[in-house]
User: Fold this.
Amino acid sequence: MKLNRTIITYIILTIGALLFDRTYSLFAHGVSSPWMSNMYLYLLGLGVLVFLLFKIFVPDIVTQKGYRLFFNTYNSGIAVLITGMLQKGILDIAGSSSQFVPWFFYTAYVFIAAAIVMFFALIRRIALKASSSVQDKSR
Amino acid sequence: MKKMPEFYRRKYSWAVTMAVLLSISTTFTMLDALVIPKSYVVVTRANSGNTGANTESAVNETEDGGTSKTESTVAAGNNEDSSAEANSQVSTSDSQGSSGRTEAVTTDYSYKDDNISINVERLDEDGAVFYVADIKLSDVGYLKTAFANNTFGRNITQTTSEMAQENNAIFAINGDYYGFRDTGLIIRNGTLYRDIARSYPDNQALTINSKGELEIVTEGEVSGASLIDGGILQSFSFGPVLVEDGQAVDTSYTRVSRRANPRTAIGQISPLHYIAIVVDGRSNESSGMTLDQLAREFLERGATVAYNLDGGGSSAMWLNGRIINNPTDGRRDGERSISDIIYIGK
Assistant:
């Protein structure tokens, strides 16, 4: 249920990002920015696809202790990344730039890298539990 | 320290905190990039009298409002006061040129004295209304640039007409709106203000040397200091290049809109003979021009070099005391406040 809700939320955000880009481009006088145009792809890939793979291959991940920590860290990374892309896109289209936008990307990378480490820790925990339960059954 | 991970694991507290932090940082970034004015260098001009030299001093401002360093460079040309005024009829006015007393003849669309000749033609072709200024000078010193509020900085803006009036310009067009970005090679009136290369593919700048020749340079491949040493007086960081070596340049790579839009561009036909084109757009009267159309206009007039400047709502042309085109950004009529102009003045 938890994963279903997350996937649906990311699908809605993906559609929202796509619609925002298309609407914004109507008023941009022919100027576009790949940062804004590709926002939806990141939400689709890092959001919908990743949690879909969790649902298929490791549905038990949500019951693990530490999942909330991973979930918050990973989603924060995506949120910061998309916010950075949105700002970069708006400034690109306006013909402007900002020295602060790269910091959004650096922050997002740190969050996502930390989340990846947490993910592997969770997977390891699931694997250890599975192997110990197999050993218990064999006894 | 133990309480922090607990807070982090809670369902909504972290999400709310992140949302607040992202909102604050986004608001700050956008205000910093688009709104908050930041003054880096205040430009002061000193009339050096009979030497005929235009001395421009740049005083760097520190964050606490004090001054830290003063640079000064000398650009060729004279710095006499212009007496060109708005006039709807043919009229004459006196001005003191470098070679003595000269008499200027002005009309709605022209200006002529012994050193400066400007003729503007208003054309309406293929749904685009545009203004072609044919400019002939006796000295490159008459081709100048000015910053809004005489200050090099970010988000410091004035309209083309305000800057033209303050600098006694005879003729002016909008510049490259350098103050909307942190990157790009900026040399103005012989002083290097910024030497941060833009990224490929939009990294070609236009320069004007002490002979009045327009040349294209690639930012990052040459340093600003070497350009100054080589006698470069002005540089503009926008683009794309429309014409180079008398040939139209492929503009399909650019991030600048290639759709019909209001445009401003400058080109050169021969030594001290220039063409400036301002295209109206985003209105019922004029749809604007594509970059390829604009390049063709320069080629038809024999330009060997032409460079696209800031366009859209910024596009404005000033002559003899008034704006002669119809600037609009498509939502609001009238001039946009911008950061710099290119002008002809004494």
